[in-house]
Write a structure and sequence with these properties.
This protein is of the alpha/beta class. It contains 12 helices and 13 strands. A 7-stranded mixed beta sheet has the order 2-8-7-6-5-3-4, with helices on both faces. Strands 9-10-13-12 form a 4-stranded antiparallel beta sheet, covered by helices on one side. A two-stranded parallel sheet has the order 1-11. Helix 6 links the parallel strand 5 and strand 6. The longest helix has 21 residues.
Length: 381
């Protein structure tokens, strides 16, 4: 199978990731739940992974790296744990439902007002709209770093500077960029960074988390066992325990730790360059095929992730993806991609789109095979 659905999850992981998970499953106890060797080993290894993530993302304190099962949980924690009755939030049409649905819940349950930065027909955001939407009761800007549908990247540093200027909380969804694009919370002005481990970070599913700037208060989303301060009626106040009720996925976290080592050894800049090269190779191969429409700005100097969304004439995107799978053994993603507002902006609500997404492990031969497949499908009567 030619796997080109890496924006959903990376299928091909560094071999060390698999080895680390297997080892953890046979050696690690429950972190913070004992003083015997296997429990202490888990605690130490988990802290080391926090440290690696803090270094990667420019988070000043490793104890402010909180583990979750994915970025959806992280975003729910960040959004539901910081917004209050009557707050106003600015977000964008580029958002995934992992941002939209928690915000809609706050809108319905806490009377949180929402405004959306719009995008043009190519999915590019109106950057001037962020400041224009600020009003006295604005509490936060919540936005993705990159669209999971088009790959378009938002200038996070510019938005972060604006948030700081107006004293706003800045929450960033890095699901599509963590491990693929450089992120520095300090220089970009990010207060809460939410990430997942199974996409660009090339770790196991069931891993993710938040990096939290010192001084940011987040109410616990869930409470329960922590392994410490067991006689308290409430969840301990200290990070990361405040937001980590229950047993952590130490096996998955060890796989994520190995993936972080691979990224450091390989060089994030090298990963980004290779993925962009593969994306451009595919785009250049399909852009001039009669009947093919692509979405976004593909200028080589334009910042974007390694994603190409396209349609062929008026063909249903699901049918195209099915033919790619059945006739060519190529795995892609079609449909709405959990990004309803983005599809409305692109005018593809009914048709959806066929998304190709590339990773470090994608080969040029696989890209070329996908180009050939699109050309053949587009040539069908």
């Amino acid at each position: 199978m030619i796997y080109l659905d890496n924006a959903a999850t990376t299928l091909h992981k560094p071999p060390a990731v698999i080895d680390a998970v297997v080892k953890a499953m046979t050696t690690m106890g429950n972190a913070s739940r004992g003083i015997h060797g296997s429990a202490l080993e888990a605690s130490r290894a988990i802290y080391e992974t926090r440290r690696k993530l803090a270094t990667l993302f420019g988070c000043k304190r490793a104890d402010h790296v909180v583990f979750t099962c994915n970025s959806t949980e992280a975003l729910n924690i960040a959004i539901c744990g910081t917004l209050n009755q009557g707050d106003h939030v600015i977000t964008t049409d580029m958002e995934h439902n992992s941002v939209l649905r928690p915000l809609y819940r706050m809108e319905a349950g806490r009377n949180v007002a929402l405004d959306f930065v719009t995008t043009d027909k190519n999915g590019l955001p109106d950057m001037d709209a962020f400041e224009a939407l600020i009003r006295p009761e604005t509490k936060a800007i919540v936005c993705t770093h990159a669209s999971n549908l088009t790959g378009e990247i938002i200038d996070i540093a510019r938005v972060g500077a604006l948030a700081k200027k107006h004293g706003l909380l800045f929450i960033v969804d890095a699901s599509q960029t963590a491990g693929c694009v450089p992120i520095d919370m300090e220089t970009m002005g990010i207060d809460i960074l939410c990430f997942t481990g199974h996409k660009g970070l090339m770790g196991p599913q069931g891993t993710g988390g938040l990096c939290i700037r010192q001084g940011i208060e987040i109410r616990p989303f869930k409470v329960g066992g922590s392994g410490v301060q067991s006689y308290l009626k409430e969840q301990p106040k200290e990070y990361p325990t405040r937001l980590e009720a229950g047993t952590l996925n130490s096996h998955g976290i060890m796989g994520l730790s190995a993936a972080l080592d691979f990224i450091e050894e390989t060089g994030l800049e090298n990963i980004e360059a290779r993925e962009r090269m593969l994306m451009q190779r595919f785009y250049q191969g399909v852009a001039n095929i009669p009947g093919v429409v692509t979405y976004g700005n593909f200028n080589p100097d334009h910042p974007r992730t390694a994603v190409v969304a396209l349609n062929i004439r008026d063909y249903d995107s699901g049918e195209v993806a099915d033919e790619l799978s059945e006739s060519y053994d190529i795995a892609v993603r079609a449909g709405a991609h959990c990004a309803p507002r983005m599809h409305r902006a692109l005018g593809t609500s009914e048709q959806g789109a066929v998304r190709f997404s590339f990773s470090w492990y994608t080969t040029e031969a696989e890209v070329d095979a996908a180009i050939t497949a699109i050309a053949e499908i587009a040539a069908e009567e």
